[in-house]
Amino acid sequence: MTPKKTIGIVGGGQLGRMSALAAARLGLNCVIYTPESGSPASQVCDQTVVAPYDDAVSLKRFASMVDVITYEFENIPVETIEILKQEKPVYPDSNLLDISQDRISEKSFLNDIGIPTARWVKVEDEEKLHATLEEWESEACIIKTCRFGYDGKGQIKYNKSQKLSVAIENLHGDLIAEEIVDFSDELSVITARDYGKNIVSYGPMLNIHKNHILHKTITPAPFAQDIADQAIEMAEKLAEKLDLTGLLTLELFLTRDGRLLANEIAPRTHNSGHWSIDACAVSQFENHIRAVAGQPVAPPAPICPSEMLNLIGDDINTIDRYLTQSGACVHLYGKDSAKPGRKMGHITFLNPTNED
Amino acid sequence: MTPKKTIGIVGGGQLGRMSALAAARLGLNCVIYTPESGSPASQVCDQTVVAPYDDAVSLKRFASMVDVITYEFENIPVETIEILKQEKPVYPDSNLLDISQDRISEKSFLNDIGIPTARWVKVEDEEKLHATLEEWESEACIIKTCRFGYDGKGQIKYNKSQKLSVAIENLHGDLIAEEIVDFSDELSVITARDYGKNIVSYGPMLNIHKNHILHKTITPAPFAQDIADQAIEMAEKLAEKLDLTGLLTLELFLTRDGRLLANEIAPRTHNSGHWSIDACAVSQFENHIRAVAGQPVAPPAPICPSEMLNLIGDDINTIDRYLTQSGACVHLYGKDSAKPGRKMGHITFLNPTNED
After folding, report:
1. For residues A236 and A258, what is the distance between their CA atoms, to the nearest angstrom?
2. Strands B246-255 and B199-210
3. Comparing C-alpha atoms, which of B189, B116, B134, B332 is closest to residue A4?
4. Is the terminal CB of chain A with fewer CB neighbours within 10 Å at N or C?
5. Which of B48, B281, B327 sits opposite A329 (nearest CB)?
6. Sequence-ordered alpha helix ranges (H) in B113-249
7. Alpha-carbon distance A228 to A238, whole Å?
8. Residue A328 with chain B: CB contacts under 8 Å
9. Secondary structure letter of residue B181 according to DSSP
């Protein structure tokens, strides 16, 4: 019998909640660390430490309660993980967190291991940026904050005719300028890798966004086999080069001229993998927990086509129509108020028809 | 948005655990009431009341923490439920508990509504029992305790040649004698019914026992359509006659001469429905929680054939072979020690092959 471990999860959101639910299937207990009381993840665990991310005493207490630690979102201070690492093993290693928290280190790492991205440059001054745009033969680009951006936050479209200092006045910290990519599709691959270097992947998934937030995920994605193979190869190469123990997500663009470009690394489970709870033998959350807990990862083994629909903000009011629909799997995250843009839940339609 | 309710679950075993996990999918919180600390169900909930079933003060405190109450096993004192009913609604109603806790009231109820069982008689004395056996043209019968039997406990095979008083010396309370049925198969149907009288059913499932404990459940069961229809009809009739709000299980025998006989009612989710977590859009646990929480039940919508294998006692040591098997869904219940006969977990094989 695999020794029973208690897993510490840093972060209390829905990804932590669904990871804790997956751990429970495997008979494992979780302890949540979150600054927020009554968090979605805390609701499904019998122990939570509620304290700020920089509270070293509470972090050490949390570490003493668990055997191994993971995190459920990327915007956790690396210092938090450094404190925890002194007490207990943390997976994925903070090298992944470090790389994925900064767009420049992320894209440098990807490019260095031969994974293409859209062209990019660090924003230094207007003159240099305009020179780059000329080199790219483009009038415009996307400017993003290097750190702490998500769901379209912390980015603008910049046109050469604008004064740079005015355009970026609401963007803080280091900035990166990215080539505007003429893409036909957005896709993602989720890869888990265990202590024994076994690797499994989900996808690629076809992702449809609305207002920069994931709206729908379709599996299997209708891509040509060579594109699908290439996408998986990229994510698995990334996992290997990082010597990953845990799970990561690679978001990609498919350009209209048929090239795959990496967009972002998420050092964690991903919204585009939620379908795997209902349509696979082993979900992304379970493989995450397995890898972290020192258990072998398992083949996802998808059993049917699926479509995942996010419930954002007031979408939650449409829930009744799905509750009795055959093949609809309803997931709600235990959040009390439906703020605009807030992820409240999702529906996975199994064997979806056009009406879903 | 359906108003969010907190559900109280009386009992802390694996059925409560899996019900709480199903509630969590729907964004609902559970509070567990159990005499045992660190119970399987408590591990996945942020609140548990640990107290004996006859502690009225604790029961009232528990009721004050929740909106609605259910129970996860049938051997809860009816008095416990009576105390709770004064505070908050309890589903299924205690009439079901009452009927199913006593084999005589159970069989009488079934027979009264036209659902056949094996012939039975209350055990009074040796003379009367022998007269009944003569009427049945049989040398032997099964004698069972009327109350608190499970997994083959509290029953013996009795032969006319034995002295009755000696044969039954370890059986306590009222006893029932049942005809020995020449059955080819054991099967079950699980039925959920909501406040709006909508009804859904799982099965029939084919169940294979070892040492009186469920060993395997196979779906879809290889029965002729008319047998399957009849089985479902019986379970749904039972639910309707009880005016059920909640979920129940009807265990049946299929005799070698093609008759369906009801064996037992379980007023709860059932081991033979565990496959529904992985192979259905909506599991038995979710439909139980929905009905109890005042939400509509949903079509189970099975997506593939499955085979469920119980892990009893030391079977848990075989877990490694299943962890990486494609299509195997591993479920462990968070129990620390593997006593003989103790249900430690189960595996659901999706699209099973003959090797599973």
Report:
1. 20
2. unpaired
3. B332
4. N
5. B281
6. 126-135, 164-167, 225-241
7. 16
8. 281, 298
9. P
Alpha helices in chain A (DSSP H): 14-25, 56-64, 78-85, 94-100, 103-112, 126-135, 164-167, 225-241, 276-279, 284-292, 319-323
Q: What is the pLDDT at residue A355?
A: 58
CA distance B190 to B204: 8
| CATH of the domain spanning B183-350 | 3.30.470.20
**A17·B28 Cβ contact <8 A:** no
d(CA B45, CA B76) in angstroms, rounded, equals 21
Chain B partners within 8 Å of A23 (Cβ): none
- Residue B105: exposure state from Cβ atoms within 10 A (0-12, 13-18, ≥19): middle
Alpha-carbon B145 to chain mean position: 18
The answer to whether residue A289 scores a pLDDT higher than 90 is yes
pLDDT in tens, A249-264: 999 999 999 999 999 9
Whole-number Å distance between alpha carbons of B160 and B138: 9
Domain spans in chain A, listed from the N-terminal domain onward: 6-90, 119-178, 183-350
B269 φ/ψ angles, rounded to the nearest 5 degrees: -60, 160
What are the residues whose beta carbons fall under 8 Å from the beta carbon of A186, sequence distance 6 or more? Answer: A206, A207, A208, A209, A251, A252, A253, A254, A263
A329 vs B282: CB contact, 8 Å cut-off? yes
Q: Is the dihedral of CA A23, A24, A26, A31 positive or negative?
A: positive
Give the other-Cβ count within 10 Å of A121's Cβ.
Answer: 20
Is A320 in Cβ contact with B281 (below 8 Å)? no
Strand partners, A144: A155, A176
Is the pLDDT score of A27 beyond 80? Answer: yes
Distance from CA of B241 to the nearest CA of A (A): 24
Chain B residue whose CA is closest to A283:
B329
Q: Which residues of B touch A48 (CB under 8 A)?
A: 46
Q: A27, B334: Cβ pair inside 8 Å?
A: yes
Fold of the CATH domain A119-178: Dna Ligase; domain 1 (3.30.1490)
Q: What is the residue whose two structure tokens read 């940026």?
A: A129
Assign a CATH topology to domain B6-90: Rossmann fold (3.40.50)
Task: Nearest by CB to B303, from A26, A44, A303: name it.
Answer: A303
Question: What does DSSP assign to residue A42?
Answer: G
Residue A120 to residue A135: CA distance in whole angstroms: 11
Q: In terms of CA atoms, which chain A residue is nearest residue B322?
A: A298
How many whole angstroms separate alpha carbon B128 and alpha carbon B118?
A: 18
Confidence of residue B154 (pLDDT cuts 50, 70, 90): confident
